[in-house]
Specification:
8-stranded parallel beta sheet; disordered N terminus; binds zinc ion; TIM Barrel
């Protein structure tokens, strides 16, 4: 029956293991998606100018420490990976807001279920080096609001607000071994209402000059920096030229904060593709003042929804359409329930050299 087939699929790496550098080839096309309302409107604000040049840079990939992972959990590195998407971290739950204690509960629940954070870059590079029995999960924080990362100034010293999303994350990390800073921030450098590298112009007490140091701090701590356009333009509404300006200037601003940082991941504002879809991946924009050409070439594109994404070892993995789960209501935990129920959860084998594949189904 179907149940026995599902069980057989999970018998593990008996005769079906391959090396981790075998692999899937990315497809260039990307699937459709449903537009959604966001906490950031399609509205420009004064955008910062960005200046510095690009060179190579990497995001650190940190392996989780040994934990009490369920030893009976059968490795399956072709399983699905949840990519959970957060917006505001605040004092109430809403469509695009997570109440702080709810966010803390998410972290506890996810940790207890033996998930550990990885970045999109780690997935692209197939460096999901978790101990056996643990599963990867990606946390993505969209829109760069002060609620995600605030400073408090005390006696001329800046402290991370423990009530901001980052403060909660770092606090959680202190007491949870193996929890790394492998999360992804998809940022805006020029949107309204403080959605400008985590706050400007005194909004929520945040000073404009703190913006670049915040982005640098995230990079220094091992988080992945991701672009989300300049001011959250609905790319489906604009010309090819504006689409490229939005994406190029979003990337350029990150480069200004962290010179040489190679942006690899791009999140579509509102989940909306440009009319010319290829421009989400690759394009260029010429700075009219300086005449310099800014080129971009995104390796991963994040959709706004669509459920857990495929493993990078799955032949159908498409980095140009990485689906996500919005942190609305109980959806993150429900997703983890479904992965266990359906038997298609990515579970690491603890061996970076081998891909643990489900055994071929017997009759
Ligand atoms: Zn957004």
């Amino acid at each position: 029956m179907f149940a026995s087939i599902a069980t057989a699929l999970l018998l593990g790496c008996v005769s079906a293991c391959t090396r981790k550098n075998d692999g899937a080839t990315a497809r260039a096309s990307a699937s459709g998606t449903t537009p959604a309302v966001s906490s950031v409107t399609d509205t420009p604000a004064a955008a910062s100018n960005a200046t510095s040049a690009a060179s190579a840079s990497t995001t650190s990939a940190s392996a989780a420490a040994s934990t009490g992972a369920d030893a009976a959990r059968v490795p399956n590195e072709l399983g699905r990976i949840p990519v959970v998407e957060y917006h505001l971290i605040t004092d109430h739950d809403a469509l695009y807001a997570r109440e702080r204690n709810h966010f803390r509960r998410d972290l506890e629940e996810i940790y207890a279920r033996d998930y550990r954070p990885v970045t999109i870059s780690q997935i692209l590079d197939r460096k999901i080096d978790l101990p056996r029995g643990l599963s990867p999960i990606v946390f993505v924080f969209d829109d760069a609001s002060p609620s995600q990362f605030s400073y408090i100034e005390r006696n001329g010293k800046l402290e991370i607000d423990p009530q901001s999303g980052l403060g909660i994350w770092l606090d959680f990390r202190k007491t949870h071994p193996g929890w790394s800073n492998s999360a992804v921030f998809c940022m805006l450098p020029g949107a309204a209402a403080g959605h400008n590298f985590f706050g400007d112009k005194g909004i929520d007490g945040q000073k404009t000059e703190w913006r670049f140091p915040k982005v640098r701090f995230l990079h220094d701590q091992g988080f992945e920096l991701c672009s989300h356009t300049l001011w959250h333009a609905n790319l489906g509404k604009y010309s090819d030229a504006v689409v490229q300006e939005q994406i190029a200037r979003g990337q350029l601003a990150i480069d200004s904060a962290v010179p040489g940082y190679k942006v690899r991941t791009f999140a579509l504002p509102l989940g909306v593709w440009p009319k010319n879809r290829a421009l989400a991946k690759q394009g260029s924009w010429t700075d009219p003042k300086k005449g310099t050409v800014v080129r971009y070439n995104n390796e991963a594109i994040l959709e706004v929804s669509g459920g857990p994404t495929r493993s990078p070892y799955d032949p159908q993995f498409n980095p140009l359409s990485i689906t996500r789960i919005e942190a609305i209501g109980n959806d993150p935990v429900r997703t983890l329930d479904q992965l266990d129920k359906n038997g298609n959860r990515y579970v690491s084998d603890g061996n970076p050299a081998v891909v643990a594949r489900p055994a071929a189904p017997t009759k």
